[in-house]
């Protein structure tokens, strides 16, 4: 009841502030502040930056969790972090890295870059875009609250039942996982629809589907995957919530339930999820390699085809996570063969990248180095991917450190390296400043060497019989040296990330501005100022082919051909409703976790629907920026 | 961007008002995509139900529970409401506000009566010992049919809200897309019900 | 300059590989790469086949990669305008079809082995063992021999062992790396898996699916014996162990008062391992060497030794009572 009162007071307080009923001066002051500006923004570039920095924050949090894990495993029978605490760390490391680091980093880049690449002034649903971000943020906070109140989730990022049921995981840990991820999931779903509609409806004249840059294509594929992959997760989490909070029996076998249902639902989401995070990285690779090889992307059409095929096949293979469940040889064989076929489109991509560089003029900038580090690393991850797709072999790999090594090669060697490449590449466009190349190179080399040092030995740890998710191992069975090497490697990765952090700080201190097109690049985002003005394009550009900007440059043009006369530009208004809606769901989530008759939970839900209802009557259509105001508005986002 | 202009005369106005603006087109496309996601969501709930429907753990089984005559009435009501929703959209495209509101009103009333029947059905089942908590069959049944019921409830509130807006603002480039997607949503709920009718009730009766 | 960096990168990888293979080559008792059973051999065959094919692919990719990086790097003072090629249909068809061929080569043995390894046919030459996973220990039951034991599994060399795997609480996964792959132990579900051991020895078993706080310590031992030794063990397990000394008698009484509820299965909520033949085992709780000192230590500090263990700490007995209890337990052979 106490919690409820606090929440009500808090809610009233917020309402008072937002409506100015509390203090008019304060409201005026608030609305002029930078914080308010960022809290209420609907500008896709600002939302992108918010996503991006949230992602970096959680990447560091997940990284620290990883360092603690490796410290525990440095020697056999260590007692630094054992039992439930270790399980919490390991669970939160996985959950954080997948849902709270990789996803927002990807959404960050997608938000900033995709509208610019297709010549749009905004995304299709600026309001929903902001809502997506705030839902993500509040969900992420909810997932992490377990560290401070009660206990953190401890059943692995896959949260398999029946371990995740009340009986075996008492305490609120799994509730945080269930409700926090549910809330971020709604945000993700909304963002996916937003990107799909943006790409389908908002392309500039001449920007046909087969002229879209590859990053836009992979964003499209990823969003489509999200659209179909998030609902199974939502249902899985819903059922788990019912089981834990409302006494349902979906997963309890003594009441007729089945724990396999969770595994199916989770992996129908979970397997596409890995393509959801890797496809945008593929897109980044394609942009970076093409730009820094000064060459058109080799086999563009087959690249597009491969991306679409990967997303399609991504839905056909989830059972390969369940080979040891005992679903029988028929199902195992079918899913094994389906899984192996994914190697074909992935192979196409790798060869296309290599042949993009072939005959080009390769500049080794930091962004390019990450792209180049990506190729062999990801190829190793892909190869072990084919190896784990074979059930008879997978019976040995499954749930061993071999698997840990495999997915870190794809997720760190693939996604993280890709994201770093993208960060160095698009940083000037996001903030108008370059990242330092020397620090960048320190970042790259220490990260790359540290990465291989950490994860290459883990293949052998798995083959030498070390299961994953163990807090310790026995001495004298040949596991000591490799574990030691693996832990040493993390130092390299940590130094790399520190170098990146230093680089970010330095870039904000630096005064020097960059021109529109610092890399001699090829796509539309490089035709406009860095950082771009709020409305992106003064005049919507006319697109005359793939690599639109490159074509104009080759033709000797200094800018894109406009597709419209100069005129007033419509801009959506900032709004605090997304923040308020997300806050309501956060309160609802917290209320359900606190149980106590679910009063606070229901209150939060009511608050959510009321805000939604009020929003429906809101007839604020934004404002127009007149041509004479362009110069003034041209200052763009404040970095 | 001409979203702000009210429509004064219906002459020379487009037939499909909902897609005359970019915002409208975005809304309609976005909503179709949302329905695609909803389809997957219901597919997962159906899958769960089909996997667990025999696990009644000694409680009443589906063939003993379901009363097809009641369900038939519910089905007829919901299908009719889909028809009235189509008629409302037809009136919207003719800019006949009053007629549209009437048909929407009938749609909402039909939705409400469906809901009343469903609540009656659930209460009846609970009396027979078929609850959310007593078996996996109960859990999966209420999760699936209940989620559908929640969708109906949301649809009723939504359409009512839009009726108020339309009554106040008229049929405009702004209200038309909203009304259009709400009717899409209503049809979607109907389609889901057809699957519930066959896969839950008919199949449950067969055993 | 660049090439050297590239080479350095790969040298690191290969040095590591060599290191891993030579310096710390695992332990024969739990090594996937040193199989002692048919199933593990089949797995290894497929691991090797897939690894060789993949190494071939990797070699091709890396050769092109290194060549491209050296040959087409930007040189100082030169400004080349590369030819903007769109692609080449023939080349693209080649690198699409070669992987398809490679995958087909892999798919055929994969499917064959998948079916082979799922084949649990009972024959005169096979024995059946029922495995039940509990948080955090294993129960082994030989239905045909009337033996029930835990943590230590005895199997005859050369015979097919058909495991019947059942779960009671959460999901576990039954894994003996040297003998074969793993199979999940799922509550409410019965899985089967055939394994065999080709040579005698003690192999280590693991739980491979996260099952809670004590997951890391849910180990067991597999003792593969020649038929003759195995039969001796069976005979020993089947004969009763009489209580001889006064101390053992006192221990038996204490056992009845303090342990029997869980360890004989009369407590419906907690199931502890069967201790009828505790003295024959080489380990306590699957992880400690079985001697009197460790046994006392285990009973006094259960949850410190094995986090999450459901066995309460037996730290309330007098030292003399403890001696008697240990004496009784050790005499159960």
UniProtKB/TrEMBL annotation, chain A:
<comment type="pathway">
    <text>Energy metabolism; oxidative phosphorylation.</text>
</comment>
<dbReference type="GO" id="GO:0004129">
    <property type="term" value="F:cytochrome-c oxidase activity"/>
</dbReference>
<dbReference type="InterPro" id="IPR014241">
    <property type="entry name" value="Cyt_c_oxidase_su1_bac"/>
</dbReference>
<feature type="transmembrane region" description="Helical">
    <location>
        <begin position="261"/>
        <end position="285"/>
    </location>
</feature>
<dbReference type="InterPro" id="IPR023616">
    <property type="entry name" value="Cyt_c_oxase-like_su1_dom"/>
</dbReference>
<dbReference type="GO" id="GO:0006119">
    <property type="term" value="P:oxidative phosphorylation"/>
</dbReference>
<protein>
    <recommendedName>
        <fullName>Cytochrome c oxidase subunit 1</fullName>
        <ecNumber>7.1.1.9</ecNumber>
    </recommendedName>
</protein>
<keyword id="KW-1133">Transmembrane helix</keyword>
<comment type="similarity">
    <text>Belongs to the heme-copper respiratory oxidase family.</text>
</comment>
<keyword id="KW-0472">Membrane</keyword>
<dbReference type="InterPro" id="IPR000883">
    <property type="entry name" value="Cyt_C_Oxase_1"/>
</dbReference>
<keyword id="KW-0249">Electron transport</keyword>
<dbReference type="GO" id="GO:0022904">
    <property type="term" value="P:respiratory electron transport chain"/>
</dbReference>
<feature type="transmembrane region" description="Helical">
    <location>
        <begin position="333"/>
        <end position="355"/>
    </location>
</feature>
<feature type="transmembrane region" description="Helical">
    <location>
        <begin position="484"/>
        <end position="506"/>
    </location>
</feature>
<keyword id="KW-0813">Transport</keyword>
<keyword id="KW-1278">Translocase</keyword>
<feature type="transmembrane region" description="Helical">
    <location>
        <begin position="6"/>
        <end position="23"/>
    </location>
</feature>
<feature type="transmembrane region" description="Helical">
    <location>
        <begin position="576"/>
        <end position="593"/>
    </location>
</feature>
<dbReference type="InterPro" id="IPR036927">
    <property type="entry name" value="Cyt_c_oxase-like_su1_sf"/>
</dbReference>
<feature type="transmembrane region" description="Helical">
    <location>
        <begin position="126"/>
        <end position="149"/>
    </location>
</feature>
<dbReference type="InterPro" id="IPR023615">
    <property type="entry name" value="Cyt_c_Oxase_su1_BS"/>
</dbReference>
TrEMBL record, chain B:
<keyword id="KW-1003">Cell membrane</keyword>
<comment type="similarity">
    <text>Belongs to the cytochrome c oxidase subunit 3 family.</text>
</comment>
<dbReference type="GO" id="GO:0004129">
    <property type="term" value="F:cytochrome-c oxidase activity"/>
</dbReference>
<protein>
    <submittedName>
        <fullName>Cytochrome (Ubi)quinol oxidase subunit III</fullName>
    </submittedName>
</protein>
<feature type="transmembrane region" description="Helical">
    <location>
        <begin position="29"/>
        <end position="50"/>
    </location>
</feature>
<dbReference type="InterPro" id="IPR000298">
    <property type="entry name" value="Cyt_c_oxidase-like_su3"/>
</dbReference>
<dbReference type="InterPro" id="IPR024791">
    <property type="entry name" value="Cyt_c/ubiquinol_Oxase_su3"/>
</dbReference>
<dbReference type="InterPro" id="IPR035973">
    <property type="entry name" value="Cyt_c_oxidase_su3-like_sf"/>
</dbReference>
<dbReference type="InterPro" id="IPR013833">
    <property type="entry name" value="Cyt_c_oxidase_su3_a-hlx"/>
</dbReference>
<feature type="transmembrane region" description="Helical">
    <location>
        <begin position="184"/>
        <end position="204"/>
    </location>
</feature>
<keyword id="KW-1133">Transmembrane helix</keyword>
<dbReference type="InterPro" id="IPR033946">
    <property type="entry name" value="Ubiquinol_oxase_su3_dom"/>
</dbReference>
<dbReference type="Pfam" id="PF00510">
    <property type="entry name" value="COX3"/>
</dbReference>
<dbReference type="GO" id="GO:0005886">
    <property type="term" value="C:plasma membrane"/>
</dbReference>
<feature type="domain" description="Heme-copper oxidase subunit III family profile">
    <location>
        <begin position="1"/>
        <end position="205"/>
    </location>
</feature>
<feature type="transmembrane region" description="Helical">
    <location>
        <begin position="70"/>
        <end position="89"/>
    </location>
</feature>
<dbReference type="GO" id="GO:0019646">
    <property type="term" value="P:aerobic electron transport chain"/>
</dbReference>
<feature type="transmembrane region" description="Helical">
    <location>
        <begin position="140"/>
        <end position="164"/>
    </location>
</feature>
<keyword id="KW-0812">Transmembrane</keyword>
<keyword id="KW-0472">Membrane</keyword>
<feature type="transmembrane region" description="Helical">
    <location>
        <begin position="101"/>
        <end position="120"/>
    </location>
</feature>
């Amino acid at each position: 009841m106490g919690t409820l009162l606090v929440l009500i007071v808090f809610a009233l307080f917020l309402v008072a502030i937002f409506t100015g009923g509390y203090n008019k001066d304060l409201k005026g002051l608030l609305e002029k502040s930078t914080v308010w500006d960022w809290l209420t923004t609907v500008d896709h570039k600002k939302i992108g930056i918010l996503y991006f920095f949230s992602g970096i924050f959680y990447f560091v949090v997940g990284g620290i969790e990883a360092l603690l894990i490796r410290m525990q495993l440095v020697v056999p029978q260590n007692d630094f972090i054992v039992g439930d605490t270790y399980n919490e760390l390991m669970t939160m490391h996985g959950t954080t890295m997948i849902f709270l680091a990789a996803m927002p980093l990807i959404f960050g880049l997608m938000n900033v870059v995709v509208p610019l690449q297709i010549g749009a002034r905004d995304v299709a649903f600026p309001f929903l875009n902001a809502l997506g971000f705030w839902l993500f943020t509040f969900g992420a906070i909810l997932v992490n609250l377990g560290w401070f109140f009660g206990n953190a989730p401890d059943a692995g990022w896959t949260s398999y039942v029946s371990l995740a049921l009340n009986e075996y995981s008492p305490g609120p840990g799994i509730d945080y996982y269930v409700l926090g991820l549910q809330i971020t999931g709604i945000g993700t779903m909304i963002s996916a629809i937003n990107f799909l509609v943006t790409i389908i409806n908002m392309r500039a004249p001449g920007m046909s589907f087969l002229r879209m840059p590859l990053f836009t294509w992979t964003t499209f594929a990823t969003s489509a995957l999200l659209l179909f992959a998030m609902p199974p997760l939502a249902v899985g989490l819903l059922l788990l919530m019912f089981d834990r909070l409302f006494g349902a029996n979906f997963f309890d076998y003594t009441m007729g339930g089945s724990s396999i249902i969770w595994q199916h639902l989770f992996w129908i989401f979970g397997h596409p999820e890995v393509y959801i995070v890797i496809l945008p990285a593929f897109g980044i690779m394609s942009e970076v390699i093409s730009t820094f090889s000064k060459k058109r992307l080799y086999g563009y059409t087959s690249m597009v085809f491969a991306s679409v095929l990967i997303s399609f096949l991504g839905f056909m293979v989830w059972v390969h996570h369940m080979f040891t469940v005992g679903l029988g040889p028929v199902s195992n064989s079918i899913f094994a063969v389906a899984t192996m076929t994914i190697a074909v489109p992935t192979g196409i991509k790798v060869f296309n990248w290599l042949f993009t560089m072939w005959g080009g003029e390769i500049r080794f900038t930091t962004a390019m180095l990450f792209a180049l580090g990506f190729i062999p690393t990801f190829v190793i991850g892909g190869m072990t991917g084919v190896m784990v797709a074979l059930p008879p072999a997978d019976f040995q790999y499954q749930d061993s450190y071999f698997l840990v090594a495999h997915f870190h090669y794809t997720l760190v060697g693939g996604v993280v390296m890709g994201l770093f490449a993208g960060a160095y590449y698009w940083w000037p466009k996001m903030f108008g400043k370059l990242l330092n190349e020397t620090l960048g190179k320190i970042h790259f080399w220490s990260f790359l060497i540290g990465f291989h040092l950490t994860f290459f030995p883990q293949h052998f740890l798995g083959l030498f019989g070390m299961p994953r998710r163990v807090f310790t191992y026995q001495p004298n069975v040949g596991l000591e040296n490799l574990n030691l090497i693996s832990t040493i490697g993390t130092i390299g990765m940590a130094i790399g990330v520190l170098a990146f952090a230093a680089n970010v700080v330095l870039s904000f201190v630096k005064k020097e501005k960059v021109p529109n097109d610092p890399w001699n690049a090829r796509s539309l985002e490089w035709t406009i100022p860095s950082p771009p003005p709020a409305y992106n394009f003064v005049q919507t550009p006319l697109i005359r082919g793939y690599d639109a900007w490159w074509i104009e440059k080759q033709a000797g043009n200094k800018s894109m051909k406009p597709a419209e006369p100069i005129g007033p530009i419509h801009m959506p208004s900032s709004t605090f409703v997304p923040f308020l809606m997300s806050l309501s769901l956060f309160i609802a989530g917290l209320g359900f976790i606190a149980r106590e008759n679910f009063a606070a939970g229901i209150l939060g839900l009511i608050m959510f629907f009321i805000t939604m209802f009020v929003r429906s009557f809101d007839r604020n259509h934004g404002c127009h920026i007149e041509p004479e105001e362009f110069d003034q508005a041209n200052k763009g986002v404040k970095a | 961007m001409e979203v702000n202009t009210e429509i004064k005369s219906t002459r020379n106005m487009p037939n499909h008002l909902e897609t005359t603006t970019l915002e409208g087109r975005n809304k309609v496309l976005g909503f179709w995509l949302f329905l695609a996601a909803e389809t997957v969501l219901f597919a997962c709930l159906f899958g769960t139900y089909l996997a667990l429907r025999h696990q009644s753990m000694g409680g009443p089984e589906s063939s003993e529970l379901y009363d097809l005559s009641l369900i038939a009435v519910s089905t007829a009501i919901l299908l009719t409401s889909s028809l009235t929703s189509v008629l409302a959209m037809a009136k919207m495209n003719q800019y006949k506000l009053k007629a549209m509101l009437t048909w929407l009103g009938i749609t909402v009333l039909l939705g409400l009566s469906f809901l009343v029947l469903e609540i009656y059905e659930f209460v009846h089942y609970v009396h027979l010992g078929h609850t959310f908590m007593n078996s996996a069959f109960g859990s999966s049944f209420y999760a699936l049919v209940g989620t559908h019921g929640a969708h109906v409830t949301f649809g009723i509130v939504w359409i009512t809200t839009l009726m108020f807006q339309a009554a106040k603002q008229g049929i405009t480039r702004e209200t038309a897309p909203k009304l259009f997607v709400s009717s899409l949503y209503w049809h979607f709920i109907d389609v889901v019900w057809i699957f519930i009718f066959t896969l839950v009730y008919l199949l449950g009766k067969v055993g | 300059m660049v090439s050297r960096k590239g080479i350095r990168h790969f040298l690191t990888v290969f040095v590591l590989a060599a290191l891993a293979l030579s310096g710390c080559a695992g332990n024969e008792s739990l090594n996937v790469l040193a199989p002692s059973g048919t199933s593990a051999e089949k797995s290894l065959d497929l691991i090797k086949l897939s690894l060789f094919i993949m190494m071939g692919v990797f070699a091709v990719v890396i050769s092109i990669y290194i060549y491209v990086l050296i040959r087409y790097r930007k040189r100082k003072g030169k400004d080349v305008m590369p030819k903007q090629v769109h692609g080449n249909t023939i080349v693209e068809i080649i690198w699409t079809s070669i992987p398809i061929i490679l995958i087909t080569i892999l798919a055929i043995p994969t499917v064959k082995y998948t079916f082979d390894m799922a084949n649990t046919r009972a024959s005169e030459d096979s024995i059946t063992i029922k495995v039940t996973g509990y948080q955090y220990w294993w129960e082994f039951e030989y239905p045909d021999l009337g033996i029930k034991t835990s943590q230590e599994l005895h199997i005859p060399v050369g015979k097919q062992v058909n495991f019947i795997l059942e779960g009671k609480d959460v999901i576990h996964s039954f894994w003996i790396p040297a003998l074969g792959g793993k199979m999940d132990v799922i509550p409410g579900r019965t899985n089967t898996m055939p394994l065999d051991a080709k040579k005698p020895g003690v192999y280590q078993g693991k739980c491979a699916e996260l099952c809670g706080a004590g997951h890391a310590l849910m180990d067991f031992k597999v003792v593969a014996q020649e038929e003759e030794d195995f039969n001796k063990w069976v005979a020993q397990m089947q004969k009763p162990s009489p209580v001889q000394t006064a101390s053992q008698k006192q221990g038996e009484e204490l056992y009845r008062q303090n342990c029997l509820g869980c360890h004989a299965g009369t407590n419906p909520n907690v199931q502890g391992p069967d201790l009828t033949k505790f003295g024959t085992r080489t380990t306590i709780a699957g992880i400690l060497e079985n001697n009197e000192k460790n046994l006392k230590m285990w009973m006094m500090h259960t949850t410190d030794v094995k986090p999450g263990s459901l066995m309460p700490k037996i730290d309330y007995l007098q030292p003399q009572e403890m001696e008697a209890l240990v004496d009784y337990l050790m005499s159960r052979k």
